[in-house]
């Protein structure tokens, strides 16, 4: 009983610290890429390698690069994309700076020939 209670308390504490609001609202920049050659593991690897360079941009608070998860297929899930990136910024200004940063521009220059479609969702924390 004690171990179960301790584990539940530890989980709740970890979750509350993850969910606690930062002092400033964050901006989430979620980008989905559809490759021209979705079956090419080489193209996917090149895109992922390019995305990793974005971590060096000073205003990037956190970067997550992913591929579609093998979750249950449901009508609300769109797993048609090839790769996604989720970047958190401290502010809109930080995201604007990222857009103009030479590393971001080089990424677009080097990798844009790989994708056929890009969709971006930007959201401010409430």
Give the C-level CATH assignment: Alpha Beta
Shape: globular
Which structural class is indicated by helix and strand composition?
alpha+beta
Query: Which H/E pattern describes the elements?
Result: HEHEEHHE
Please tally the helical runs, counting DSSP H or I stretches of 4 or more residues: 4
**Strand order within the widest beta sheet:** 2-3-1-4
Compute the number of structural domains.
Answer: 1
Low-confidence runs (pLDDT<50, min 5 residues)? Answer: 5-20
By CATH, the topology is: Alpha-Beta Plaits
What share of residues are in beta strands? 25-35%
Supply the key terms:
globular, Alpha-Beta Plaits, single chain, 126 residues, alpha+beta
In short:
The chain is α+β, with helices and mostly antiparallel strands and 126 residues long. Helix content is 39%, strand content 26%. The chain is globular and about 40 Å long.
Topology:
Elements: H1 2-19, E1 27-35, H2 41-52, E2 60-66, E3 83-89, H3 92-100, H4 102-111, E4 115-124
Antiparallel strand pairs: 1-3, 1-4, 2-3
Task: Give an account of the 3D structure.
This protein has about 130 residues and is α+β, with helices and mostly antiparallel strands. The chain has four helices and four strands, in the order αβαββααβ. It has helices at about 1-20, 40-50, 90-100, 100-110, and strands at about 25-35, 60-65, 85-90, 115-125. Strands 2-3-1-4 form a four-stranded antiparallel sheet. The longest helix has 18 residues, at about 1-20.
């Amino acid at each position: 009983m004690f171990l179960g209670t301790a584990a539940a308390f530890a989980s709740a504490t970890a979750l509350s610290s993850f969910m606690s609001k930062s002092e400033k609202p964050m901006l989430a920049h979620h980008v989905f890429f559809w490759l021209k050659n979705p079956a090419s593991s080489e193209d996917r690897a090149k895109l992922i390698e390019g995305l990793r360079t974005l971590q060096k941009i000073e205003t990037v608070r956190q970067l997550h690069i992913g591929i579609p998860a093998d979750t249950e297929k449901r009508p609300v899930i769109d797993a048609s994309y090839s790769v996604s990136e989720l970047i958190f910024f401290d502010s809109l200004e930080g995201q604007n700076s990222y857009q103009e940063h030479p590393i971001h521009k080089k990424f677009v220059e080097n990798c844009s020939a790989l994708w056929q479609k890009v969709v971006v969702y930007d959201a401010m924390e409430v």
